[in-house]
Amino acid sequence: MADLSINFAGIEAPNPFWLASAPPTNTGAQIMRAYDHGWGGAVWKTLGTPIRNVTARFAANDYGGQRMMGLNNIELITDRPLDVNYEEIREVTRKYPDRATVISLMFETEDEWKENIERSIENGAKGLELNFGCPHGMCERGMGSAVGQEPLVLERITTWVMRYATVPVIVKLTPNITDIVQPGLAAQRGGADAVSLINTIKSLMAVDLDTMIPVPNVGGASTNGGYCGPAVKPIALNMVGQLARHREFDLPISGIGGISTWKDAAEFIALGATSVQVCTAVMHHGYRIVEDMIDGLSRWMDSKGYRSLADFSGLASQRLRNWEDLDMNFKVVAAIDPATCIGCQLCYIACKDGSHHCIYLPGDGSGKAPDTGFDRVPFVAHDECTGCNLCSLVCPVPNCISMVEVDRGLAPVSWRQFQSGEAKLPAYTYKH
Ligand SMILES: Cc1cc2nc3c(=O)[nH]c(=O)nc-3n(C[C@H](O)[C@H](O)[C@H](O)COP(=O)(O)O)c2cc1C
Ligand code: SF4
Ligand code: SF4
């Protein structure tokens, strides 16, 4: 059976599944229940000078019948006294010495950082996570994403922390920035042991059109919040991949953002993450989801012959390129399987109105679709198909439209090679 244990920048855990700093890690009692379900680690709800929260705090968008496809929150950091938090941290780290109990911190002055780093470590923290990501409330006070968006400030505060920390330090990055590599490299220059990403994305969820008040409604007004949940996974994956493949970046990564299943987690690991963190999926379905995550990941690894996570970590990041380095001679076309096609013709409409009009219908007057006897099955003109994928994405029948590679007998040529004159491309053909 596959070994799921990890050593993340010196922090050991029985598996890569950690709870992200958020409501599921608010108290010691919650974290201990989570550990009993199997979570390998937990990042404590961010400690800082205790704050007051508002109500309501959350809003969500549902899509295609799925509740909470995206979650928006305007919650701040812990609203419980620091003494209470530290007492509970002590209990958790004593009772669960094999789990990665990481303490998330967000303070203003170097003295406050020093005091709370020392208290976290005295009480058994296995690591520290610096919250430079909160995109609401705390940034207005000069913390959270206000730090994460300024690489020089991020580097400076990381340097302060590294003076006092005797356990591994993870810098948690904000996605509310143009180029994630810049804060990633700043964390590395500041001496951090690792990074985690992403924190939430600045967002405004919706407007109630009866009251004209955006949501969540806080006494007749609202404010921007932080977006997370399944909807943000592609953004998080891209940022993890960008960092993992950057030649100057060399720190372990904890991947966060929209992870709900073992497959989501495996994708982050394939792109270079060592551990993953989960928030929204646990807020939605509870701690027990980790049981399926552990089971699914280890079965999949067994089926692929991966004995440890290191066997596939980063394999997909090696396949990430700049657009200009992709092979322009690679060609696929759509192929419809008439045996499974239900004749809905969604592909025909999508290609006609939303792509390049390369799909035809029997009897449509174009004379392109042969009379096959399947009179509702569309026909793809392969010599016109641009290989865009759209029809296969809209087709409601799994695997009914496949994208088939066409061997044109041409060697790979990238845009960069073409531009530099290193290689030629065949003449471009397009549809009039
Ligand atoms: C209600 C709520 C509160 C959160 N509080 C914190 C926090 O205190 N500190 C922190 O670093 N991240 C906080 N986060 C962000 C999460 O840790 C995580 O980065 C984000 O939700 C993306 O993961 P997900 O898509 O699995 O939810 C919070 C998220 C939510 C939804
Ligand atoms: S969308 Fe799929 S099922 Fe519908 S007509 Fe096209 S190929 Fe057939
Ligand atoms: S791949 Fe694109 S261009 Fe080709 S048939 Fe499908 S939608 Fe049309």
What does this structure look like?
- With 432 residues, this protein is an alpha/beta fold.
- It folds into two domains: 6-319, Alpha-Beta Barrel (TIM Barrel), CATH 3.20.20.70; 323-420, 2-Layer Sandwich (Alpha-Beta Plaits), CATH 3.30.70.
- The protein is built from 13 helices and 20 strands.
- It has helices at residues 28-37, 82-95, 110-122, 145-148, 151-164, 181-189, 233-244, 262-270, 280-285, 289-304, 346-354, 390-394, 415-420, and strands at residues 6-8, 11-13, 17-19, 41-47, 58-63, 66-73, 100-105, 127-131, 169-172, 194-197, 201-203, 206-208, 213-215, 225-228, 253-256, 273-278, 332-336, 359-360, 379-380, 401-405.
- Strands 3-4-7-8-9-10-15-16 form an eight-stranded parallel barrel, surrounded by eight helices.
- Strand 3, helix 1 (28-37) and strand 4 form a beta-alpha-beta unit.
- It is elongated and about 80 Å long.
- Bound molecules: flavin mononucleotide (FMN) and iron/sulfur cluster (2 copies).
- One iron/sulfur cluster is lined by residues 336, 341-347, 378, 395, 397, 400-401.
